[in-house]
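Lecture 7 notes: from sequence to structure.

We start with a single chain of 261 residues. Read the sequence below before looking at the structure.
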Amino acid sequence: MKMRLAIPILFALLVVCPTRAAFADAARDELAPSGHLRVAIAMSSLGGPFWSAKDTAGKPTGVPVDLGKEMARRLGVPVDYVMYENSGQITDAAAKGEWDVTFVPVDAERAKKLAFGPIYNVADATYIVRAGSPIQSAEQLDQPGVKVAAVANTTTMRGAARVLKNTTVVGYQSVDEIVRLLTKGEIDAFANLRDQLVPLSTRIPGSRVLPGAFQQTKTAIAVPLGRPSALAYAIAFLEDAKTGGFLRRSLDDHGLKDTPI
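Now the structure, written as C-alpha cells:
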C-alpha cells in the first residue's frame, strides 16, 4: 500500500518540479537580468507600508526592503536597493532599466509605464495643516491663496489636484523637504497618507490632520512593462507573502501592527 501511494507522489514531483524550475528560471532572466534583483524604493523619514528609510547604520529598512530581500532570496540572487526620493521618480525610471521590481501606489497614469501585481495596502489620503491654521476641513482648504504641497508626480498629488479646484497643489521632490516647509509654516497643508500624517502631527506641535479622505491609495508590487514572466512571478510571490504570513510579520516588525493587509 505504501509503495502504491509513493509512486503517484513521486510521479507528481517529477512532473511539477521541472515546470516550477523552468518558471523560476524564466522569471529570474526577466526579474534579475543583471544577476542581482534591483529593488526600487522611495525614501522618507516618516516610514509606512510604502516608504523606506535608513537605519542608524545608514542601511535601507522598511516593508518594501523586506519584500525585496525575500524575493531575491527565493530567486537565489543578491539584492540591490535603488533609492529614489519618491514614487514618481521610480515610475519615470521604469523604461531606463534602472530597477527590476518595486512597490508603489497604483493609478491609471502610472499603469501606462508599470505592470502591477496584487495590492497589499489600502490607505486614506488626507491633509495635515500647519500649526496655527484656522482651516478645519478640506472644503475650507480649497480656496485661493492657500498653499498645499504634495510629493511631485505621485498618485496623492494627482488626487489632491483633482479635488482642489480653487487652489494649486505644488509638488516637491521629497517628503522631508515638505515637512521642513510645514514645520516653518511656509505652506498651509501637506497632502499625504493618513498613516504618515498622524505620527507627523506629533512631531509638529499645533499641526492637525483633517478629517475625511480625498482618495484611497492602493499600493501594489510592480515591474516594468514588457516582462510577462517577471510579472507572473511577482504576482505569485506577493500572494504567497500575504497568505503565508511574511507580509504580516514585516508590517509588525516595522511598528505597523494596526495596518491591515
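The chain has nine helices and eleven strands. Keep this in mind for problem set 3.
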